[in-house]
Design brief:
The complex is a heterodimer. In chain A, helix 7 runs antiparallel to helix 8. In chain A, 79% of the residues lie in helices and 0% in strands. Chain A contains 23 helices and no strands. Classes of the chains: A mainly alpha, B mainly alpha. Chains A and B meet through helix 3, helix 5, helix 10 and helix 15 of A and helix 1 of B.
Amino acid sequence: MGVGGSLVNFSAVDWAITIASLVATVWVGLRTRRYVGRIEDYLVANRGMGVWVGTASLVSTEIGIITYMYQAQFGFLAGFSAFVVGLITIAVCFAVGRTGFVISRLRELEVMTVPEYLERRYSRHVRVLAGVMMAVGGSLNLGIFPIIEARYLSITAGIPPRYVAWVMAALLLIALAYTALGGMLSLMVTNYLQYVLLAAGTLVITFVCLWRIGWSGMTGTVVEHMHGRGLNPFADLGVGPAFILWQVLLWVAFMTVWQSAAMRGFSARDAATGRKVFTLTSVLFLGRAVIPMAWGIAALAFFAGRMTPRAPVPDETPAAEMARLEGELTAGFHPLLDQGRLEELLPRVDRLETLARAERSEPHAQNARALREEMGMVAMPWMVASLIPVGWAGLVMAGMLAASVSTYAGYFLGWSAVISQDVVSPLLGRQLSEAGKLRLTRATIVALVAFIMVWSLVYRVPGPAYFYLQVTANLFMAPTLLTIAGGLYWRKASAAGAWACFILGAAASLAYLIPGTGLSVGAAGNLSWGLAFVGLVAGSLLRPPREPVQRGVA
Amino acid sequence: MSWLGLWAVVFYVSVASFALVSALVAIGGYREVRELFQAFADAERGRKPPDPR
């Protein structure tokens, strides 16, 4: 417990460590600016990336505070069953790294963005369509990062909510400054430093969870408090062939055509280096999933251990008890959540869920699920704020901010490269000079940051953040992977098929984002892949390529 | 093997492999960053006009 009964242990020493880490990152990032003269230096660091820096860069970009928050939320809600996603991740990433599926061919073709290949293989219009889809999906995906990460900072550093937006704006501007000036070279160097910090922070939190709560505390809580759930993913998550297929496809797409990940492959010294980076990354991606999921379970154990039993009200009917609990939660849920008093909320939500299940009351069950999801999002930060000692809290915060800033920087560069090179530049209809391309990409990064600041303030996420992120990604990942894999490995794939693939694939994902459609995330994901596949095959067979495909691009 | 046994193995393997590969990345990455800067600095020197003296 922190000073004065507060849950937060964040002192002046911790602030000093945090600020020093940010200053060092910016200083290192800005030093690279002088070496950037051409767009190839800027977007793919003149293809000079080695295995270790490449791994650090890829992993630090794909681990942000938001990653740890949604994975912890998943662990809090699903218990150990959530770990199955980590196993699928390592299997897929390892297979992509070992085989070089898609990534090796794209590296050999020396593209700088994923849609660039689509112009070589299909047509300029397909490149622009893919660019628009990726820009929209990628921006929507990135758009919720600041608001979720702000909650982490607010809780763990004790920053008053009214200042959190300013803190997030400052972090976005830090990432903007060195990314806009130094591009990929700046990213690779800062990512190295950031990776070291985030790995240290990750291991400190894990160690403290094991020290203060223990593996037995975590397993005991899942067995005791999850009413028979939390261990068997087949029963809990509906894991079956459809779920596994969806996750496998999603991860193949993530490793091969997700612009910020694919750019690491494009920046590698050669295709073999790219494959080694992805193989090493698979091991770290197992930890990226499983470790924060375990923190979520530890947070559940932490708060469950502080719960006090509630005395039943005599002669109260189940319907009256559910109504009373809902009334109490409506009035007190958010004030208690904002103070980190989850031990007072958990028994009420547990009881409401139990009663709703027994009475088969779907509205009460839905409400209880939504409240549990909200608790799951903040439980891990509150546990971290409470358990990490002074001094170590600064190291952990430096690690989390490094994770956050590196993710923003990587995504800014990735999505702005797509917007500038694959949408704006082709539509201008004339060849830009090297300096013009650099100016355009830098201006796009600034516009992207402005959009993200606005979107994160106005949008409310429907359901768990984990699913929102996967569905926005699916807007373009299914069609992009299918058109690229089809283009590389199927000579009959045509531009008409690519068009149909993108339009049909995006339609299913868009339906999930529209409130009131009732489409589940799993159904939207599978529908997206199914329709995109049908679109590519049917469109290509109905309107085959007009000319034979050039050697090398297929 | 029970579910609990399986998840314990998965968790401890995840943490150990994360720590090991992170240490390797920290050591190997330091050398690569230095080489990267050196390569860019050499390229920059090559682009500069010769010293008139």
